[in-house]
Amino acid sequence: MKVAIVGGGPAGLYLSILLKLQDPAHDITVHERDPEGSTYGWGVTYWQGLLDRLHAHDPESARAVDAASVRWSDGVAHVRDLTTRHRGDQGHGIGRHRLLEILAARARSLGVRLHHEHEVTDARAVADADLVVAADGVRSALRTRHADHFGTEVAVGRNSYIWLGTTKVFDAFTFAFVETDHGWIWAYGYGYSDTHSTCVVECSPETWTGLGLDRATEADGLALLEKLFADVLDGHPLIGRDRSDGGAQWLNFRTLTNRTWHRDNLVLLGDAAHTTHYSIGAGTTLALEDAIALAAALREHPALPDALAAYERDRKQALLSVQSAARYSAQWYENLPRYIHLPPERMFALLGQRHSPLLPYVPPQLYYRLDRAAGQLEPLRRLKRWLGPRLARGVHARRLESRK
To answer: How far apart are CA 107 and CA 61, in angstroms?
Structure first.
C-alpha cells in the first residue's frame, strides 16, 4: 500500500513505524511543512500505561523513549504561602523535540521517507497514494478543506493560557495558585529533562486583562509572571517561544470534534480529529493511541473503507470518557473560586477529583467528606470505580447526540 502521511508529529511518525513493521513493502512518506528539528513545544507528559503499549508494539522505540524520559510520583500544590504534597501514580515527561527525534530516526531506519519543508494542503497533491492520513494538527488544512463533510465543531474555552518553558527542574508535578488584586492566576509545572521543565500559566479573562497581560510585550509579560511565581521558580527564568513566526502567545483552548473521521481514502489522526484540554495531560498519549488503532484496523480489515470505519468506531468509543474528563477538568479551573478557599489539602484532593461529573453539583466540603468515606470502605470504592466512568461516558454521549 502507498501511504501519504501529512504531518510529522508523534502520531504521524508512529503510524509510519507501525505500518512498516506490519509490512515492510508498504511505501510510506511523511510530509512535514516545517524544517526538521524546528518543532515548537516544551515537554509532554504520559503515564506508564502508554509506555507499556509502546513496548508491546515497537520495543525498540519504546526503550529509547523510556531512556529519554524523566519521572515523578508526587504532586505538589502551592496556595498562597501554604504547600501540600501528595503521592500519586508515576508520571513521565519527555521533551517534544527529543520524542520526535527518536520517532523520526526509527521511521527512517525502517525505510520511511521523511519529506520536510513540504506543505500539503490538498489531498490531490498526493493523489497517487492509496491512503492519505491527515496528521497535520488542530488547524489541519486537509480537514478544513472538507469541514462540512467531517462535521467539524470547535468549542473555545473561557480561560486564557500560555505555554512556557523554564530552567527550574520540578521534582514533582507542581501546581502554584497565586492571588492578585485582579483574581487568581496559576501554573502547572513538570520536568521533562535534566535541565528544563514545562510551565503552563492560566487565568480567567478578567485576571488576564486586569494584570495587563493582554497588552504587555512578551518580555514584560514574562517578567510579570516570573515575579508572580517567584516562590516556585526559585530565581529561574520563564522562557517564551523561540520561533521566527512570533513569541509565546496567550490562547484560549479550542476543543475540536468531528462528526466523522474519514472521507474516501482520507482519514484524520491525532489533533486533526480531536483535542482534549491540556489539564489532563493526554494529548500525546491519545495521538499515539490513534496511530496504534489505525494500524490495527488496517491490518485486520483488508478493505480500506471497512478499516477506516472500524478505526473511527474504536477511537470514538475510547475517547468518550477521556473527553468527558477533559471537559470537567477545564470547568474545574474555570470555577476555581468555588474550591480555592478550602484548606490546601482539601482543595488538592478535589483537584484530583476534577474529572468527576458529580463534583460541580455537590458542595465542595460535602463532596470531600463523601469521597473520604468512600476511600475507607471497599464496597464504596468499587461502586465509585464502576459508576464514575459510566456516568461520565453517558453524559458526554448525550451531549454529542444533542449536537446532531
So the answer is: 9
